């Protein structure tokens, strides 16, 4: 497990698991803590579908993961039913660099059919698929602007995660090297403050 998590983090590769409620020996695989731990530690997700057909439509998520996914919003709420029936609304900022948007909502009670993802114009976006206890949207080239995830008051306890891939994956990393005097040879250094002073960043 540690090795798998380490590799996922080193290569910046989230690990996703797809499960189905269809009959079979593996139908309870989603309850195994090892799947949950690996997905969470690598910034991936678990998707539980009502049938195997839903799994076949998730190729776009796998493709986006290979390009590099970044979590841009995550949250959860306990049951918040009240007499005023106030819906819960989450803002999702979208800029022009986002190539693919993935929004996943999981509920433990209530109906998922009333949950809406609204685009920059406030119009509902059709769900890509329904999960066993939630739903997922996969949107290609979302229009820049303020998007909203609206969860009606009667849904109750829920969680959500928003990830995105970018057309311009800009990764910033740094390291230090020690330049061997008189040779021009550079040697990587993990702790530049421990040792000589001739360091080149």
Question: How would you characterize the overall build of this protein?
Answer:
The chain folds into 2 domains: 2-166, Sandwich (Jelly Rolls); 174-201, no CATH class. The radius of gyration is 22 Å and the shape is globular. The chain is built from 4 helices and 13 strands. The strands form 4 sheets. The protein has a 5-stranded antiparallel β-sheet. A 3-stranded antiparallel β-sheet has the order 4-9-6, with no helix packed on it. Helices cover 16% and strands 36% of the residues. By secondary structure, the chain is an alpha+beta fold. Residues 196-201 have low confidence and may be disordered. The two termini are 34 Å apart.
Q: What about the largest sheet?
A: 5 strands, antiparallel
Instruction: Tell me the structural class.
Output: alpha+beta
CATH topology of the largest domain, by name, is: Jelly Rolls
Q: Count the domains.
A: 2
Distance between the termini: 34 Å
Question: What sequence of helices (H) and strands (E) makes up the elements?
Answer: HEHEHHEEEEEEEEEEE
Strand order, biggest sheet?
Answer: 3-10-5-8-7
Contiguous uncertain segments of 5+ residues: 196-201
Share of residues in helices: 10-25%
The total beta strand count reads: 13
- The mean pLDDT is 77
What would you call the shape?
A: globular
Q: From the 3D coordinates, which CATH architecture of the largest domain would you assign? A: Sandwich
The CATH class of the largest domain, by name, is Mainly Beta
